[in-house]
Design goal:
- With about 250 residues, the chain is an alpha/beta fold.
- The chain has a single domain, classed as 3-Layer(aba) Sandwich (Rossmann fold), CATH 3.40.50.720.
- Helix content is about 45%, strand content about 15%.
- The longest helix has 29 residues.
- The radius of gyration is 17 Å and the shape is globular.
- It binds nicotinamide-adenine-dinucleotide (NAD).
- Nicotinamide-adenine-dinucleotide (NAD) binds next to helix 1, strand 2 and helix 4.
- Nicotinamide-adenine-dinucleotide binds next to helix 1, strand 2 and helix 4.
Length: about 250
């Protein structure tokens, strides 16, 4: 597949959950397009591997749990001392266990919502003031079709992702009078390590709902994120961009 070039020269991007999967592919394409990229991830081994594999002086990282406000705040203020933060990709997420709501472990339920939704809130809360100061910003919040349609046996995940959609619509409107765009994306299933957190039956059920009849490729997802993250996106904000292979039709 041929790839269009984007101009991310002089842009600094924070990508949460960037050590693997979607986040890592976005990091690669941003770096190839001239951006400075900072990966925020909770997994030190995967960060180390990503840094080694990508071997790019414009790539750096922080080990951070996005659900921990203090950690996020401290990372943000360290970066903001040296640089603008132009792009924020809120991508870190977990699915949690596959279980009906009445059997769902309460602590796990809270954890899934904390990482997916509060993590997005924490990163926006600490980074948006930097974008306001510079009157420039592109924020992409990674939601999911689960947040639109609701997946059975994934109530915490569906709630967290639906919350991200609500947060995006609200924050986008709050910032609409500035050159800051806030958008959400709703991918269907892609073959990343996150699928290991769910049962095989659950993954098959997800796939059976996709009219395209296949998994989303990470590169296809990155293409959409690139345009939304670029200066070319001057008008779209507070919106939800679907990339579910026809599953969600709104
Ligand atoms: N792959 C899919 O099928 C799919 C579908 C829809 C939405 N999504 C969403 O896309 C995003 C990326 O998923 P992926 O498929 O690349 O998964 P992945 O498991 O490959 O990568 C997720 C990354 O997030 C990191 N992470 C987890 N908890 C964290 C925390 N508390 N703080 C910081 N980092 C944390 C992990 O260490 C990992 O590197 C997630 O938000 C996911 O919900 C994925």
């Amino acid at each position: 597949m041929s790839k269009n070039l984007y101009n991310f020269e002089n842009r600094t991007a924070v990508i949460t959950g960037g050590a693997q999967g979607f986040g890592l592919d976005i990091a690669k394409r941003f770096l190839n397009s001239g951006a400075k990229v900072i990966i925020w991830d909770i997994d030190p081994k995967m960060i180390e591997k990503a840094i080694k594999d990508l071997n790019n002086p414009n790539l750096s990282s922080n080990i951070v749990d996005v659900s921990n406000y203090k950690e996020v705040e401290s990372c943000t203020s360290n970066i903001a001392k040296k640089s603008n933060i132009d792009i924020l990709i809120n991508n870190a997420g977990i699915t949690g266990p596959t279980a009906p709501l009445w059997e769902y472990d309460i602590e796990m339920w809270k954890k899934v919502v904390d990482i997916n939704l509060m993590g997005t809130f924490n990163c926006c809360k600490t980074i948006v003031p930097n974008m306001i100061k510079n009157n420039y910003g592109r924020i992409i919040n990674v939601a999911s079709v689960a947040g639109k349609d609701g997946n059975a046996n994934a109530s915490a995940y569906s709630v967290g992702k639906a919350g991200i959609i609500g947060l995006t619509k609200s924050l986008g409107k709050e910032l609409a009078n500035k050159n800051i765009a806030v958008n959400a994306v709703t991918p269907a299933g892609a073959k990343t390590r996150i699928l290991d957190q769910m049962t095989k039956e659950h993954v098959q059920r997800m796939l059976s709902k996709v009219p395209r009849g296949r998994f989303l490729e990470v590169e296809e997802f990155t293409s959409l994120v690139c345009w939304l993250s670029s200066e070319e996106n001057t008008f779209s904000t507070a919106a939800v961009f679907d990339i579910s292979g026809g599953r969600s039709t709104y």
